[in-house]
Amino acid sequence: MTDFQIRRRDFLYGLAGLSGSVIASQLPFESASAQAMRLNGAGASFPAPLYQRWFVEYNRINRNVQVNYQSVGSGAGVKQFMGGTVDFGASDVAMKDDEISKVSRGVVLLPVTAGSIVIAYNNKDVSNLKLSRQQLVDVFLGKIKDWKQLGASKSKPIKVIHRSDGSGTTAVFTSHLSAINSEWKSKVGEGKTVQWPGGIGAKGNEGVTATIMQTDGAIGYVEYGFAKNNNLKTAQLQNKAGKYVTPTLENASKTLSQVTLPANLRAFIPDPTGDSSYPIVTYTWILAYKKYSDAKKAEALKNVLKWCVSKTGGQQYSSQLGYVPLPDNVIQKVTQAINTIA
pLDDT tens digits for 121-150? Predict the structure, then answer.
C-alpha cells in the first residue's frame, strides 16, 4: 500500500466517524492478495465504532487477514449467526439457551467490551438535564410531552427518538425501564423490539444519533460513544441509590465492578446498586461457533479475538471511543473461552 493509499484510508476512516458502516467492510485493502483470509461478521451497532477501529488496526499488523463487519443491529446479527451466513455475530444481549440450542455447530459467547446507554438530547435551552427514574419512564411513555415539564425555560414539544430495528441497545434500555417501573413493564415490557407508545423510529445507534442531531427538541437513547464523539448533550440519570449520575467511563466501570461474570459469560445489570453507579451499562458479545469446518479460518478468528481482548491490542482503543476496557479477570475468562473454538 502506498503512502497515498494509507492516507486515503485513514482519511475515510476519520470521515466515517460513527456513521455505523464499519470501515473494515468498505475500504479497499490494496495489499491483501487473493490468498488473504476473510472473516465476515454482522450484528450490534452499539460496539460498531470500536469494532471498526479494531479490524482496521488488526489489518495494519496482519495484512493477510481481513475482517468485514456489518452494523445491522443485534436482532439481525443473531439471526444471521443462527442461519450460518456469517463467521461471527454480535449482540448487546447474550443469546438465550433456546437460541443456542438451535445452532448445531455450538456457540461461544464472548463479552469483548462494555459501555453505557445514555439519554441524549437536542435543546439549546437546556444545558444540565437531570432525569429522575419516574421522569425517564414518563418521557418514553409519552406522558411528559413538553420540555418545560423537565425544567426548561421555554416551552417546546419533546420528540422521542427510538430504534426502529431489532436492537440489543433497545433490549438493555427497556430492561432497565422494566426493572424500575411496573407500569412500563406491564404496558411496554422489554426486548429487542417493543411497541413504543410514540416517537420517531431510526435504524441503528447511528440513525438515532443523526436524528437527534437533526431534530430540535429531540431526546433518545444511544451508546455513550455515539453521544460523546458527536458532541451530543446527555442527561444525568437517577440510580437505584437515588443519586444523579453523569455518564462517564469511570461511573460505568463502577457499575461493572459489581458484577461477576459466571462460567457461561452471560451477565445482565438491569438496575445496579452503588452511589456512583451509572444505571444503564452492559457488556456486548461477539458470537462465535464452537466448530468451524475450515481449521485455518477458526485459527484466524481466534487470533483476531485474542488481540481484540488483550490490553496491548484492542482494549487500548476502548476508552478513546467511549467504551469500558475489560477488567483483567474478565480478559482471562474470555481468552479461555476463545481457546475452546475449534
Answer: 999 999 999 999 999 999 999 999 999 999
